[in-house]
Amino acid sequence: MRCFITGVSGFIGFATAKQLIAHGHEVTGLMSSRPHFNPLKAAGIKPVLGDMRHPHEWIDALHSAEAVIHLATLPLPSRPGMHYVKRLLIAQELILTAMLDTVSDSCKSFVCTSAVSIYGSGSNEKTEETPISPYRIAQPFALCEKLVQRAVKDKGLPGMMLRLGGVYGNGGVFGKFWTEPMLKGKRAGIPGNGKQLFSFVHIDDCVQAFVRCVENPIPGGVFNIVDNEPAPVGEVIQSLANEMKSPRPFHIPSFLFRLAAGPLVGELLLNDKVAGNNKMVSQLGVKLKYPTYREGIPALAGTLRNST
Questions:
Q1: Angle subtended at Cα 298 by Cα 230 and Cα 199, rounded to the nearest 5 degrees
Q2: If DSSP codes are grouped into helix, strand and coil, which group holds residue 186?
Q3: Which of 135, 187, 189, 301 has a beta carbon 3.0–4.6 Å from 247's, enabling a disulfide?
């Protein structure tokens, strides 16, 4: 199948592209940074250089796509505020409108990436039927879902929405805050008291969900992509430090974390984000390789040790 991925050079996009290629699919991907060009080509990906905010530069590559995965976003600043959210809202509306107007009838699966942060706070388990109340930084996800759902209804688009939990691996937010400091032998910080509950998912299981959407699409489907058991974020970070033999993580008082990371990231990482995965398992058919962080973190640590 001919697949097109926006954000293909990112943490999730690159891992998904490699797995799709391993399954025999062809992958073309949008990338915004020229230094990624050769590594993508070496992995068997056909890279297309362009800015997500200027779809006229690359949109022709979408015409022949039989499956589309939208992962692109704007680079996250060190202390994002509402100005960043507003810029991202404009960019996402622009890129998705162009993509939805361009995909042809040959497209069998259009996957829109969202997140469980779209539900807002609360330690109660959220299902896909739970009304959304997005954290401020998750407002662009809500917009993306709205645009895709409208196209499903009005145009018969084979659209699907994946609401990702906290994806852990050597990249993304998890890599920036926790994996990378530990690899450098530094102490990683735990936001607040670390008791806030997160629904996590290992990168390999996250990728499996995207591949399932390409190979067995369920038009109109909305799925939480999380493992079986929410966990206190401090417990997960401490577990990785133990496995990596890294210095003991330290707690960052909530007020200091908000001051350093900004109120939007503080809101995101200092509160509960809990979701259930019944639909992911029963309908999408994802078979978790790592049912909880207790299996996933040791595997991640082993991968990290082997890469150094």
A1: 15
A2: coil
A3: 187
Counting DSSP H helices and E strands in the chain, the numbers are: 12, 13
Q: Give per-residue pLDDT as tens, 159-217.
A: 999 999 999 999 998 999 999 999 999 999 999 999 999 999 999 999 999 999 999 99
Predicted local confidence at residue 36, as pLDDT? 85
Cβ neighbours, 10 Å, residue 155: 12
| Residue 38: alpha-carbon gap to chain centroid | 24
Residues 6 or more apart from 238 whose CB is under 8 A from it?
A: 190, 194, 248, 249
Q: Among candidates 4, 32, 234, which has minimal Cα distance to 111?
A: 4
What pLDDT sits at residue 308? 64
Task: Work out the average pLDDT over 75-82.
Answer: 92
**Amino acid present at 217:** P
Q: Is 253 exposed, middle or buried (CB count within 10 Å of its CB: 0-12, 13-18, 19+)? A: exposed
Encoding tokens for residue 212?
């399932």
H-helix segments, 103-253: 139-155, 172-174, 180-183, 203-215, 233-244
Which tokens in the block code for residue 12?
């999730």
pLDDT band at residue 5, thresholds of 50, 70 and 90?
Answer: very high
Comparing CA positions, the residue from 166, 118, 120 lying closest to residue 293 is 166
According to DSSP, the β-strands at 26-31 and 109-115 are: unpaired
What does the angle CA 156 – CA 142 – CA 252 come to, to the nearest 5 degrees? 150
